[in-house]
Write a structure and sequence with these properties.
The protein has about 220 residues and is α+β, with helices and mostly antiparallel strands. It folds into two domains: about 120 residues, no CATH class; about 60 residues, no CATH class. It contains seven helices and six strands. It has a six-stranded mixed β-sheet. Strand 1, helix 2 and strand 2 form a beta-alpha-beta unit. The longest helix has 29 residues. It is globular. It starts with 13 loop residues before the first helix and ends in an 11-residue tail after the last helix. This is IS4 family transposase. Pfam families: DDE_Tnp_1. Keywords: Plasmid. InterPro entries: RNaseH-like_sf (IPR012337), Transpos_IS4 (IPR047952), Transposase_11 (IPR002559).
Length: about 220
């Protein structure tokens, strides 16, 4: 599901918008992020929410191992600035996971993750590496929103900033409602939600909407 969505003008960066999204994190969440978002400030803001983090970083990022762990990961520290790194002061402890995707066409030689989950027994490196790749499912959600819900090659109809915001959040809410319905259906059938078709669900809802639209106002049940 897409939630806590933010929008701004084309001059506003994704990292700036991410700061607003981080305020919606909760302690029982695990936040995944791509390497373009990693930075000491953003990491610290996300950790202040109480949520755990699993973020990808550049594979050449300087992360000196403090302790090697049995699952192949290691404990290290990140620093706010170059001076802190040189003097090894004010560091924040993280766990580093390096891994390869053998036999996958187009895969990079090395992937590097940092996480706030320091216990290798509670969160083994192999499980976290597999979990991180679920992050790419967000691209499927973007496709659902922009192609199948809005319509391929269709731009927003609105021509003023306020109406563009209204239309954008309307699409976000519609996507959230459809995904919520799919989740409920999957739970009732004891199925994995990933096995359900977003396109098929949209078609079913569209067919049902014509039925609800045909109800005369005089027969509409009153809500008390």
């Amino acid at each position: 599901m897409l939630f806590a969505s933010q929008m701004a003008g084309c001059a506003t960066s994704e990292v700036t918008l991410a700061k607003a999204v981080l305020a919606c994190l909760e302690p029982d969440m695990l936040c995944l992020a791509d390497r373009s978002f990693f930075g000491f400030e953003l990491w610290s803001l996300a950790r202040d929410s109480g949520a755990n983090l699993l973020w990808r970083v550049r594979k050449n990022m300087r992360l000196s191992p403090d302790k090697r762990l049995p699952d192949g990961s290691c404990l290290s520290r990140i620093y706010r600035c170059e001076r802190d790194w040189r003097h090894k002061t004010n560091g924040v402890q993280v766990r580093v996971i390096d891994y390869r995707l053998d036999g996958v066409t187009g895969a990079e030689p090395i992937y590097r993750l940092v996480t706030s989950l320091l216990d290798h027994e509670e969160a083994p490196a192999k499980e976290l590496a597999a979990l991180y790749h679920e992050r790419w499912a967000i691209e499927t959600s973007f496709d659902e929103l922009k192609t199948h819900l809005r319509g391929a090659r269709i731009v927003l109809r609105s021509r003023t900033p306020d109406l563009v915001r209204q239309e954008f959040y309307g699409l976000i809410m519609a996507h959230f409602a459809i995904r919520g319905l799919m989740h409920e259906a999957a739970l009732s059938a004891d199925e994995d939600p990933d096995r359900l078709s977003f396109i098929h669900t949209v078609r079913v809802i569209r067919r049902k909407l014509t039925v609800f639209a045909a109800i005369p106002p005089s027969t509409t049940p009153r809500l008390s």
